[in-house]
């Protein structure tokens, strides 16, 4: 199996193909606004804050890859990437939709990339497309685990799963 195929499988497992962990699209499917903003303690991030954080880094990478650095999201530090828009149901839905859109756009870029595109350094990044998407997929998996845990703490996780 080549690295591109392997990475495409890893990328899909983070969004919509269940593997060793549930994909984010399925995890967020029935999360209400109240569940999305809930925190067990103030020091922890909410589900929605985590999704904003994931969206920030994926969108920034997408914009950099496309050479659209003017449009890339900005944050003074990592903590600022967890910022929420106004806490409305409409914005919660928009955040989820934008995350899915950006994730799929990155998947399309990966799928159509030629070998040399996979390994060229992306402007503004330290690594190539392959290494950055590998890191983003691992980052997603880590935070998906947090989101699942927050869901379980609220009783929003189904009692029976497919695996």
From TrEMBL:
<dbReference type="Pfam" id="PF12867">
    <property type="entry name" value="DinB_2"/>
</dbReference>
<dbReference type="InterPro" id="IPR034660">
    <property type="entry name" value="DinB/YfiT-like"/>
</dbReference>
<dbReference type="InterPro" id="IPR024775">
    <property type="entry name" value="DinB-like"/>
</dbReference>
<feature type="domain" description="DinB-like">
    <location>
        <begin position="24"/>
        <end position="147"/>
    </location>
</feature>
<protein>
    <recommendedName>
        <fullName>DinB-like domain-containing protein</fullName>
    </recommendedName>
</protein>
């Amino acid at each position: 199996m080549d690295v591109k195929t392997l990475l495409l499988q890893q990328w899909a497992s983070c969004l919509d193909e269940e593997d060793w962990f549930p994909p984010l699209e399925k995890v967020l499917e029935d999360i209400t606004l109240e569940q999305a903003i809930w925190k067990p303690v103030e020091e922890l991030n909410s589900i929605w804050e985590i999704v904003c954080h994931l969206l920030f880094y994926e969108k920034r990478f997408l914009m950099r890859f496309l050479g659209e650095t003017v449009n890339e999201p900005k944050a003074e530090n990592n903590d600022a990437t967890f910022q929420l828009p106004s806490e409305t149901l409409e914005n919660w839905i928009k955040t989820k939709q934008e995350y899915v859109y950006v994730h799929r756009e990155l998947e399309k870029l990966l799928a159509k990339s030629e070998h040399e595109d996979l390994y060229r350094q992306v402007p503004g990044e330290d690594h190539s497309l392959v290494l950055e998407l590998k890191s983003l997929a691992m980052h997603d998996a880590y935070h998906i685990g947090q989101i699942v845990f927050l869901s379980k703490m609220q009783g929003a996780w189904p009692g029976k799963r497919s695996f």
